[in-house]
Design goal:
single chain; alpha+beta; three-stranded parallel sheet; 21 strands
Length: 599
Amino acid sequence: MADKLIIVESPAKANTIKKFLGGSTKVVASMGHIRDLPKSKLGINIENDFEPEYINIRGKGDLIKSLKKEASKAKKVYLATDPDREGEAIAWHLAHILNLNEKETNRVTFNEITKNAVQDAIKNPRTLDKNLIDAQQARRVLDRIVGYQISPLLWKKVRRGLSAGRVQSVAVKLIVEREEEIEKFIPEEYWNIYAKLSKGKSKFEAKFVGQNGKKQELKNEEQVNKILKDIGNEKFIVKNIKKSEKKRKPSPPFTTSTMQQEASRKINFTLKKTMSVAQGLYEGLKIEGKGHIGLITYMRTDSTRISEVAREMAKKQIEESFGKEYYENRYYKTKADSQDAHEAIRPTYVELTPDSIKSSLTNDQYKLYKLIYNRFIASQMSEAKFDTVSVDIGAGAYDFKANGQTLKFKGFMAVYVEGKEEADEQIPELTIGEEIKKDKIEPKQSFTEPPPRYTEASLVKSLEEKGIGRPSTYSPTITTILERRYIEKEQKQLVPTELGKLVNDLLIHNFNDIVNVDFTAEIEKNFDMIADGKEEWKKAIREFYGPFENELKKAQEEIDKIEIKEEVSDVPCDICGKMMIIKYGRYGKFLACPRISRM
């Protein structure tokens, strides 16, 4: 008979925790949610004040029996699911199924799966946090209402199997709107003039900036030719030299979204892959000489805060590896609307450098761990310092500027650089009044470019900036709209399909609030208020449902009047000779005979 039973979500997490606890403690996994809303119907009693109708998830009967049996044998049951709203809700459902008293202190959470964190959590259990549970319920219920009541209208008008969702519909709208911007974009011509200059063996470049101290933009070749003619044999004379020091600060340690963005940019991971690999690093891996241990803190967070213990570990590692001048104690301000429940994503054991455990990791695990590790270490390091020089050069009435920089102290850049590393651009020692040799003048024609299409990384950044969704929602949202074929990937770019444009158009005309960015962000704030105990969850659903119900009734009346224009291909039908039309099925586009499809 076990003194203690600890229930977590996954077997990997269970294996890691087992090694930190005594033999009389049993650790088992619930394999995620065990209760949820039914898939076959709405599952929300709207007449009974939006009461959810939860059922045990199909296929989990044997697991539930096993959990009940283990719970009945244990003196104390601890619910150690993930430390967020979703984890709190799973714990609450477990408490219901196992007939645990919700007033009992049986909930334990840890932000990292280390011996100290796990043992401290077991020593300090708490009661279930009803506010977090209610916030998760509010999201689940509202998303179910939106999905299950709008989707049938899409089935009726477009095809079965389509879905509408609060966050996914806004994401599709952003992608469609960006594509429309690109299609409407009219390129504008502009020019630059570059002077290739030299002093002795040193060569550098100066760029045309204006005339007689006034800035000037070059719009056409005529302007450029006049300047080139005027410059002719004019001497290039140094007018002014400005030397200064430039400093660059490191970025904060990762939040979920910044990790997803950098993993996409630096190691070419999709959001789904990033979260899957991070989950494994958090739950624990078998490391040679260490056993099964968790390598990073919880990977769903929008906080940049780190613990004082982590700060001390970073200081020790930096000073030993680089020297005292490379360390700087840094605090980062977390955004006002973030859920600051746990720390930023960081390594749990700073002494386990990526290269020291590389042999125990897969290639993907190593890449992501190295990214997380280096970003965290860099966040506690000194600024990088550059010597910069800006030189104003005159050629008759025309002004040119040359800029140079030299890295004089790497600081955090010894470990981590966000984006591309700044290259040194050398400019020789010059004096005011000095004439510089002109090697060549190069005019260059360019055209303005449309805004870029979204990538997974830039879409996450945009959703986060607009306050739509939360760290845990971004990856499943993008996965869903790809699977529904509302968008496609071309290289790393997200492009709306005709189906995506069609569904977006239907939603805009019938459910404008659902795809309204500000409205969706406001709902997210309501969930946060519920989590903070400042709002009652059913009240929030009531306030949403009134206007939504009116839109739904109106849409049901109007949807039959909407004519969807058929997309005609350039392929003739073998049977009737008419051009085939493009239809959408479960697996994407297919061609259909126009006569048969209308029968």
